[in-house]
Write a structure and sequence with these properties.
The protein is an alpha+beta fold and about 375 residues long. Among the domains are: about 45 residues, no CATH class; about 210 residues, no CATH class. The protein contains 14 helices and 18 strands. It has a four-stranded antiparallel β-sheet. The chain has a three-stranded antiparallel β-sheet with strand order 5-7-6. Strands 16-17-18 form a three-stranded antiparallel β-sheet, with no helix packed on it. Strand 6 and strand 7 form a beta hairpin. Helix 7 packs across helix 10, helix 10 runs antiparallel to helix 13 and helix 12 packs antiparallel against helix 13. The radius of gyration is 24 Å and the shape is globular.
């Protein structure tokens, strides 16, 4: 007869300090004297450290990303980046490739050579114009694992998969399977109708498959922009930090019409920034004043200057841009480090100047998002509580 299986008791204790202090504590204590805290397990998650799930019910009222976008996949994994990914186009099977934040390259998208091509989903970026939300399912650091793509993308776009930062891509539209021209089939939103209907009722607007200049309507791009704004809200990331580490994020439903459209506008601003649409270098930022070889040797940041070698540098680079994270990367640093040993051409220099501007303005927009999401009036708080 099978015996009842019971969970073991697990105890935890945090010990912080310098090495000498830790050695001293261990020398003067034993298993009995340490003030252990017994961990309480629930659901299917068994964490070996204490977790604060006090806001679980509140967080659970939002919609889950992978439920809203039913068709999704992890990014492409070639298993041979050295030969299949390059700065220059390939003579055959070439596709533009979102490799890292602000680092677009080329991929030899030969399905016989690319080990994990994810073509069942990636084909929706090849067949026509599309947009994809890239979000990690898990992470070990503070949550910041979100980006966008308009083309097929790498599994490590938002972070290394081995460190729980690799992202799944959620296409906004799905294209018909047929290759025939005159079928009349159109692309369809990759969106859960029940969740969209709920949003529609909350904001009093009718959903349309494509953006239309008609009053009281909203489109798939508006939904994506709303989500993108919320996921860039610092207060949201902090409030739900424990939940964001363990699964795809849940996004709160809009609580008012003005709030929804304000976030759509801010999310649209972030989207255009991150896709570098109509972004030009700023005159007083990241100037490249010294002529030279343009060789990237050992990038370093000194007194608002980003040196690429001993004599050449980008001037007046804000520290917020240099240190800014997208996923597991600091793009202002990684973009240069990935070009170590290469020579920057004119387009490269301009592109890096655009990166600096984008990162600085992203931080500014995120602060605006904070005010919209959590800058509630007393009346709005009462509505939420009801």
């Amino acid at each position: 007869m099978e015996q009842d299986k019971k969970l073991a008791q697990v105890f935890h204790y945090d010990l912080y300090g310098k090495r000498a202090e830790k050695y001293d504590f261990l020398l003067n204590n034993n298993l009995q004297s340490v003030q252990w805290k017994q961990l309480e397990f629930e659901d299917d998650n068994y964490f070996f450290v204490p977790k604060d799930f006090e806001l679980k019910e509140e967080y659970g009222q939002g919609f889950k990303i992978d439920e809203l976008f039913p068709i999704n996949t992890s990014g492409v994994k070639t298993h041979d980046d050295t030969n299949l990914v390059d700065f220059n186009p390939f003579p055959e099977n070439n596709q533009l490739y979102t490799y890292r934040p602000f680092d677009n390259r080329n991929i030899n998208y030969d399905l016989k050579k690319v080990k994990r091509h994810r073509n069942a989903v990636m084909k929706h970026f090849i067949k026509g114009e599309n947009m994809g939300l890239v979000v990690a399912r898990q992470c070990v650091s503070d949550w910041r694992y979100v980006f966008l793509t308009k083309r097929i993308c790498d599994i490590n776009l938002t972070g290394t998969a081995g460190a729980f930062g690799g992202g799944n891509v959620f296409p906004l539209y799905l294209y018909p399977e047929t290759d025939k021209i005159f079928t009349g089939e159109k692309r369809k939103p990759n969106l859960n109708e029940e969740i969209i209907d709920d949003i529609s009722q909350r904001i009093g607007a009718q959903f349309t498959d494509e953006g239309e200049d008609i009053e009281d309507t909203f489109a798939p791009i508006d939904v994506l922009d709303y989500i993108y704004a919320v996921l860039h809200c610092p207060a949201y990331r902090e409030r739900y930090r424990e939940f964001l580490k363990i699964d795809f994020p849940r996004v709160p439903y809009p609580y008012s019409v003005p709030q929804f459209w304000s976030l759509v506008e801010l999310g649209g601003t972030l989207r255009r920034l991150h896709l570098m649409e109509d972004v030009e270098p700023q005159d007083d930022m990241a100037n490249f004043p010294v002529a030279g070889s343009n060789d990237v040797e050992q990038p370093k940041y000194v007194s608002d200057k980003v040196y690429i070698n001993e004599t050449q540098y980008f001037d007046n680079v804000p520290s917020v841009a240099w240190n800014f994270y997208i996923g597991g990367y600091q793009p202002a640093q990684k973009w240069l480090k990935d070009r170590k040993g290469r020579t920057l051409n004119y387009d490269d220099i301009v592109h890096y100047q655009r990166i600096i501007r984008v990162l600085k303005e992203t931080e500014e927009v995120m602060r605006e998002v904070d005010e919209v999401v959590y800058g509630l009036t007393e009346e709005e708080v009462r509505i939420i509580e009801k």
